[in-house]
Amino acid sequence: MKNDKIYSIQQIGAQWPTLDPFLFTAHHKEVYPKGNEDMTISESLTGRNIGSDFSSKDGWSMYHGRKIPGFPYHPHRGFETVTIVEEGLADHSDSLGSAGRFGEGDVQWMTAGAGVQHSEMFPLLNTKEKNPVELFQIWLNLPKKDKMVEPSYKMLWHEDIPLVNEKDVNGNAIEIKVIAGTYKNTNPLASTPNSWAADKNHNVGIWRVHLDANAEWSLPATAKTSNRAIYFYKGDSISVDSTTIEENVMFHVNPEAELKIKAGDSDTYILVLQGDPIGESVAKHGPFVMNTRAELQQAFNDFQNTQFGGWPWDKQEMVHAKNKGRFALHADGKLEEK
């Protein structure tokens, strides 16, 4: 489909198509069984491809975890990750010595830059009931000039993330979670020190929007230079510019157009990703995103030689103490606890 407001519509699954400057978005929604006392999975793993389980068998995947679901330590270079944990908890550890436990609406922003190793595991803390997890991981590119910036990470705690609450003409509620980019007059929290997205001139926006059933929302126009995508990921249907869709979809839309978005007969959730394209060549393989094949090879060589600082933790599937609450330990020793 193509018109002056909606350029195209694509179906989405667990991994979503993205537009420059975004590289990749994964939506993980799992209902894990109860955990053991050591936070490992309590059910049999027979029939799964352990080490690379994306099966969604019985409503959950182990991913690259062997006893605890998640992503054991692995490297990144040349981009940023934004991890939004809407439900459940994630445990972060990295080669800088940073660590954290976050979730229930928290966001972790990590600029990999010159190179970092990290793990993201899902500790199964509940031993009596199921352990649901819903999260998004968004990969945001860095331009050539910023590929080798110093890596860093930051926690955006859900208590601090700005929420804009609106009502439509019928009194239906609309909530906009402002993760990146200014929405109307509401500014986001600061991201990492070397984040390309933090520069307002790049028009990067990441907004999670919740519409009550039948709510109508107007998405304001943005800069004509931007790429803008609207992802409808939860609800029975959605109408964008009078086009109604009943399945999970991505709308690539005109950034200069104000769009009328209407929820169906149930609570509706969308994610808006927008930003000016970087417009550079992209060479990527696995965890590295560079501009040329030669730079990719150099990234592999550097990782083999330095391990991006090594792994200071005693486990590949690193999880923190079961009784720990939400926290962030930074490489400089600063500790935040929630």
From TrEMBL:
Origin superkingdom: Bacteria
All residue ranges annotated as the Pirin C-terminal domain in the record: 207-309
Organism: Flammeovirga pectinis
Lineage: Bacteria, Pseudomonadati, Bacteroidota, Cytophagia, Cytophagales
Name of one Pfam family that matches: Pirin
Keyword terms, alphabetized: Iron, Metal-binding
Protein name: Pirin family protein
Keyword Metal-binding listed: yes
Family per record: Belongs to the pirin family.
